[in-house]
Design a protein that fits this description.
Length: about 300
């Protein structure tokens, strides 16, 4: 039997009629949840307090854990940073180690037989004295190495001497050029002026390396005012050159000349530059009257 639904509007229904009662009965009453009992309220409150207590303890535990972890991380980072700083400081701080003095100086010159190789005693003695003064001034980072170019010797001789004063060894002895306007076989003219194409005497401190027009090269910092302190602006560096070799020295009696730079043989240049780079002493010596009169270095008399 099909259900018939009245289409009469509600205001047309007669109060108390079966149709009205059936219509109103068909409308569901709104749901009203039952009120919680006292037991339910107590249970909910107890559960809430329990959960809050556990959450509080958990938060406290997590806080302590992360605080300890953070403190350990900070301590480790600080220790690492401090260690790195002191390692870096020790790598770049000026050397406080004095060079050989007194009898050790003379013994080193003699024990290495440097006189037989052509290095004059005055060049060696002044080189060590200048090294001591540069160490005292805080300019030297590696006091073990002393390099001397003895320009009292002709360019056909091996006049570059690289000496390890700590191990008392001669590391290198090879050819080195002088500036083309300083002379042919012998360097007799010296200048600190740009475009002079002459060598500059005195003490230098080696710098870092770079790849330039002549390949692997070494920067030089002239330490004597008015004598070689224009080295940087002049572009005076140590580099290799094909015109610096024994064959040319033997055939012509002199090697090629540079624009003022100390050029060394291609065969040795990389290892030699690696040995003397980064804060070692390099001394260009000559018994030159102008240098002797104007240098501020004070050399003891040779015994």
């Amino acid at each position: 039997m099909a259900l018939q639904v009245s289409t009469l509007p509600i205001d047309r229904l007669t109060f108390g009629s079966p149709l009205q009662i059936g219509y109103l009965a068909a409308i569901p009453a709104p749901f009203t949840p039952p009120l919680p009992s006292a037991f339910d309220i107590h249970r909910q409150s107890t559960t809430k307090n329990y959960l809050m207590s556990k959450t509080k303890k958990l938060n406290h535990t997590l806080f302590l854990y992360f605080s300890i972890a953070f403190a350990l991380a900070c301590s480790t980072s600080l220790l690492t940073a401090s260690t790195g700083f002191f390692h870096q400081a020790s790598a770049f701080q000026p050397s406080q180690k004095p060079a050989a003095k007194g009898d050790d100086r003379n013994n080193l010159y003699d024990s290495l037989h440097l006189d037989s190789l052509g290095l004059t005693r005055s060049a060696f003695s002044q080189g060590l004295s200048g090294l001591d003064m540069l160490i005292a001034a805080g300019d030297i980072r590696n006091a073990d190495i002393l390099s001397i170019v003895d320009l009292n010797l002709p360019s056909s001789k091996k006049r570059l001497f690289v000496i390890d004063v700590s191990t008392r060894t001669l590391v290198y002895n090879t050819y080195v050029s002088h500036g083309r306007n300083s002379g042919r076989e012998m360097a007799t003219q010296f200048s600190n002026q740009p475009n002079s194409y002459e060598s500059s005497l005195g003490f230098y401190v080696t710098g870092d390396t770079y790849i330039g027009h002549h390949g692997y090269s070494l920067k030089l910092d002239g330490k004597e005012e008015g004598i070689n302190d224009n080295a940087f602006s002049r572009g005076i560096v140590m580099h290799s050159a094909s015109y610096v070799n024994e064959r040319m020295a033997t055939a012509r009696g002199y090697i090629g000349r540079s624009e003022g730079c100390p050029a060394i043989p291609v065969k040795w240049h990389k290892n030699l530059i690696e040995k003397i780079k980064n804060g070692t002493c390099l001394f260009f010596y000559s018994a030159d009257k102008f240098y002797a009169a104007h240098t501020k270095m004070r050399f003891p008399p040779i015994s």
